[in-house]
């Protein structure tokens, strides 16, 4: 049973704020687990202690209250049910407003977490980039997101590595090219893919009107140059056949 979400976490802070509110919340969840046969609870409060899609947060108390909620839930549903949480790419924020350095108690009560390793670069970004990078060593300073960095940040906060899962995106983003500049051959433009069909470099005016997914990094060649290359290959093959003993 998953609870919360990007736009569904606006009441989390209040629900876990006191012993009474936590007990009521846990009792409701326990009833749902029993009535519908769920095998556990996945709490998707993505940004405790700070604003996500909501302004309902309490920086000074959210994280400790969240931990108490998980402890209360574990006591209520027992060890045979799963308790997990979806998390930001970096450790949850503590009472001082910075990333927590000790989340070991969460590791004691949770079966696993799923780090939201996606949407590091979206359609609203100023520059294109991977949804979430395998490595960020060559990325600009504004795009320092990668799978290894996310995992290392959580293990550095003392969360057990064997309880970390990655949430992988099965989607991508597209950008509409508004300028001919990306197609300058001197810039080694990316391969252009439209509906999964490799396109030759047509006129810039035509390319400007297309919505393209930018992938990889290879030099774009014109239809004429491709035809010439194929013709040269055929001539060489024919020459080899004539001189063969």
Automatic annotation (TrEMBL):
<feature type="compositionally biased region" description="Basic residues">
    <location>
        <begin position="233"/>
        <end position="245"/>
    </location>
</feature>
<dbReference type="GO" id="GO:0008061">
    <property type="term" value="F:chitin binding"/>
</dbReference>
<dbReference type="InterPro" id="IPR011583">
    <property type="entry name" value="Chitinase_II/V-like_cat"/>
</dbReference>
<dbReference type="GO" id="GO:0004568">
    <property type="term" value="F:chitinase activity"/>
</dbReference>
<feature type="domain" description="GH18">
    <location>
        <begin position="1"/>
        <end position="245"/>
    </location>
</feature>
<dbReference type="GO" id="GO:0005576">
    <property type="term" value="C:extracellular region"/>
</dbReference>
<keyword id="KW-0378">Hydrolase</keyword>
<dbReference type="GO" id="GO:0005975">
    <property type="term" value="P:carbohydrate metabolic process"/>
</dbReference>
<dbReference type="InterPro" id="IPR050314">
    <property type="entry name" value="Glycosyl_Hydrlase_18"/>
</dbReference>
<dbReference type="InterPro" id="IPR017853">
    <property type="entry name" value="GH"/>
</dbReference>
<dbReference type="Pfam" id="PF00704">
    <property type="entry name" value="Glyco_hydro_18"/>
</dbReference>
<dbReference type="GO" id="GO:0006032">
    <property type="term" value="P:chitin catabolic process"/>
</dbReference>
<dbReference type="InterPro" id="IPR001223">
    <property type="entry name" value="Glyco_hydro18_cat"/>
</dbReference>
<protein>
    <submittedName>
        <fullName>Glycoside hydrolase family 18 protein</fullName>
    </submittedName>
</protein>
<feature type="region of interest" description="Disordered">
    <location>
        <begin position="225"/>
        <end position="245"/>
    </location>
</feature>
